Amino acid sequence: MLGGLRAAWRVVSPVLSTVSGFGWAVLGFSLVFLIVGLEFGWREFLVIACVGLAAEVIAIGFAVGRSAYAVRLDLASERVVVGERAVGRITVSNTSARTLLPARIELPVGASLAGFPLPRLAPGQEHDDLFGIPTTRRQVITVGPVRSVRGDPLGLMRRELRWTDAVDLYVHPRTVRLEGSASGFIKDLEGLASRDLSNNDVSFHALREYVPGDDRRYIHWKTTARTGTLMVRQFEETRRSHLALALSTNTADYASDDEFELAVSACGSLGIQALMEERDVTVMVQGATLHSETGRRLLDDLSAIEEEEKRETIVQLSKVAGQTVPDASVAVLLFGGPVTPTQLQAASVHLPLGVRVVGVSCQPGTEPMRRQIGDMTLLTIGDIGQLPAALRRVNN
Predict the structure, then answer these.
(1) Which is higher by pLDDT, 18 or 247?
(2) Of 361 and 195, more confident
(3) How far is CA 323 from CA 240, 310, 317, in A?
(4) How many C-alpha atoms does 42 have within 13 Å on its Cβ side?
(5) Tens digit of pLDDT for each residue in 308-329?
(6) What is the rounded distance in angstroms from the CA atom of residue 247 to the CA atom of residue 262?
(7) How far, in whole angstroms, is CA 373 from its chain's centroid?
(8) Which listed residue, 38, 200, 306, 360, has the most CB atoms within 10 A of its CB?
(9) What pLDDT shows up at residue 14?
């Protein structure tokens, strides 16, 4: 019994779903007017009921019909920079042997909905529609899925069919190229010897007595012959540049959305430059570490981050950065105008000794500045185009 009801519901459900909320309301009122008109003999009510029921029957004719489409959704590029034009195309073709009646194509674009009229299509005929997507702000926009809609002009019936999957459009932050001495601060510690001793590196430190397990390739035979004791070379580990970027996403660290967007752009510029130079990069925000294997993945993640009210301030973020990347050679903290010098001093304390600390305060419209707060070099920029010159000041 239950199995039969389920099977019947599977058949009836798609049919019932084509009736819109307005259609159900019209149908309900029409039935009420019909019953009242028959009960009391009120012709006016009977006329209204007949008109409503007739409209429902006519609406069915608009909703029925074959929909044998082949639909393709194409974006000219799935990744654009803020302000660039994003263009896409919908191609619909009739794959049946019969002419298909006009319909409507709907395309969700983020929170908006775009509609395109689809004309009558002969067998094998194609129809193209081009569309543009505004990219005035950094974000990830879900485009699609494409669906065809059949229905009547009154909106009593609405039949939807989905034809494609959704596609993500990444609107990347604006970045600038850091060339010459502007990127030099990333390289400053490359190849410098640390105080950590190693048994195999390129920076020779001293000789010591051989112990079981040492690599015999590093035995110093001349000293061994002179002393009569096996002696091996010991090295100092050399430091490879590792850039740690800590971008605050706490709304309390920014006076406006523009400050946050500038900080995201600066973070992307620094990360991309380091990756181009084949440096190690770690990018962190409160509660997450972004993908930084490639520039594309980093910019994709930066496209999706948003400001949020968080308990973790720039101080806690700096502490997490010090624990997550203890071998960093350069740490850059990125934030907005409300962050105070006291907070920056507290933040720099949580980073390991020997790490070069740079703070980037993003305040649109201000003149670039450089000053020292304890061990931290603080840069203030008012536009992403000022970042290369500001970094050159760090090296000077």
Answers:
(1) 247
(2) 361
(3) 18, 20, 10
(4) 12
(5) 988 888 999 999 999 998 888 8
(6) 11
(7) 33
(8) 360
(9) 55
Query: d(Cα 226, Cα 204) in Å, to the nearest integer?
Result: 20
> Terminus-to-terminus CA distance in the chain, angstroms?
84
The whole-chain average pLDDT of the chain stands at: 84
Residue 186 pLDDT > 80, yes or no? Answer: no
Which residue shows structure tokens 């039935």?
31
With tokens 């012709």, the residue in question is 43
Q: What share of the chain in percent tops pLDDT 90?
A: 46
For the domain made up of 69-172, the CATH class stated in words is mainly beta
CA distance 168 to 173: 16
Question: Mind giving me the DSSP string for 257-308?
Answer: HHHHHHHHHHHHHHHHHHHHTT-EEEEEETTEEE--SSHHHHHHHHHH---B
Question: Does the structure show a pLDDT above 60 at 201?
Answer: no
Pairing of strands 147-151, 158-162: antiparallel
Q: How many residues does the chain have?
A: 396
69-172 and 180-188+240-395 share one fold: no
Residues 220, 226, 228, CA angle at the centre, nearest 5°? 85
Which CATH number is correct for 180-188+240-395, 3.40.50.410, 2.60.120.620, 3.40.190.120, 1.10.275.10?
3.40.50.410
Would you call 249 exposed, middle or buried from its count of C-beta atoms within 10 A (0-12, 13-18, 19+)?
A: buried
Residues 336, 340, 344: CA angle, nearest 5 degrees: 90
Query: DSSP alpha helices (H): ranges in the chain?
Result: 2-17, 21-40, 43-63, 184-187, 221-227, 257-276, 295-304, 314-324, 341-349, 387-395
